[in-house]
Amino acid sequence: MTYNDKLEMLNFEYLKNLNEAQKEAVLYLDGPLLIVAGAGSGKTKVLTSRIAHIIKEKKAFPNQVLAVTFTNKAAKEMHNRVSSILKKEAVGLSWLGTFHSICAKLLRKHAPAAGLNSNFTIIDTDDQIRLIKNICKSENIDIKQLAPKYILSIIDRWKNKGYYPDQVIINKKDIYEKTVLPLYKIYQEKLLDLNACDFGDLILHCVNILEKNLDINKIYSNNFKYILVDEYQDTNFIQSKWLNLLAKNHKNICCVGDDDQSIYSWRGAEIKNFLEFDQIYKNSKVIRL
Question: Where is each UvrD-like helicase ATP-binding domain found (predicted)?
Fold first, then answer.
């Protein structure tokens, strides 16, 4: 590509209001990229311009781009911004959403591989607490001694680390874990009986399906030519593993994160995913905005 071609390419409207670092982040499309961005550095603009650029340059069709956020609000904003740049070309951005919404979509397509029917229900916190209370009652556990919310927080921590009940290794220093593990086992069995899952299961089941079914894994790791992740510093182990499985073929994963804010630490976010990006993804590039 000659310099003039490049200049011609840079005439795209959405590139005009970017500074040099932002422009570099939008135009770098070969291999893993970590964008380190503080508050107010225009990271949303970079992410949306990057998606637009990938599609405009015909590097991928809209349904071959996976863009993941933590909140529905962020996903909606990203969708609106990309649509306003691309107009009609934005049709088919079907894989832009939150970790949970995208995993739910994958799981509906491949529910039998997780022991569910595709019309499974996703239970909320109130339902979870009700279910745990019933289990405690039948197992003679006094919920005044061991609060259902606390039981669920241990279960959630295990799920964020990628453990089904039979994979949990009890932490001897935690006096409650050995009491909670049998409850976790019953809880998971009940969820399957109810054709239901909780939010933690959405990603856990997806990772399990992708690891155990190479044919399904192939479909998605081939399809997603570009993966973009917002707030990467807030990802936990299981989310990072899920991204890794999907990125393993094309390796075009772009993660944006701030190295000094982790507001999701209660979700088991592992800042080391962020700090060790270049070890997880070989030959990666880092751009600071």
Answer: 16-289
